[in-house]
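Mods, move this if it's the wrong board.
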Amino acid sequence: MSERSPAPGGLELVEALVNTLDLETGADSLDTGEGRARLGLTEEDVPAARELRESLRVALLAHAGHPPHRPVTPLGELLAAAPLVVTVDPADGSAALAPAGADSLTARVAAAVAQALVAGTWSRFKACEAADCHWAYYDRSPAGRGRWCSMQVCGARAKMRRYRAKES
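Not the wrong board. Structure tokens:
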């Protein structure tokens, strides 16, 4: 839905996961082999990926000041199952977070969230406030008060609804 540029760093993976479901049409790219392959998933991984996706969506809605769209497993509980370790490259001394065990989607998301926390970008990662959208986007507005994934689509619809409500 969004014409915005992708979220920075590892948040691009999180954005790609959250945006696998189009709430307006119900289309879920995790239902397709191509959609699963983009995230490195098998068909057996899909239920856990969907649970993670909706927990992430709740966190992103909270960043935008909105209540959960539905009850979900808390994101912290899901990410706790994917411990991370700090790796240091002996050649150049650079450090990075990496999954402590298997390189699962949950572990990759946990590393992305941790890196976003360190970079200070996590709180600007939000979900569109439109109830039929909730698309993930990175808020690059100067004040960090973006509300919609797309001002031209979701923002325009919200403004038109408010206008029509005043006219009635």
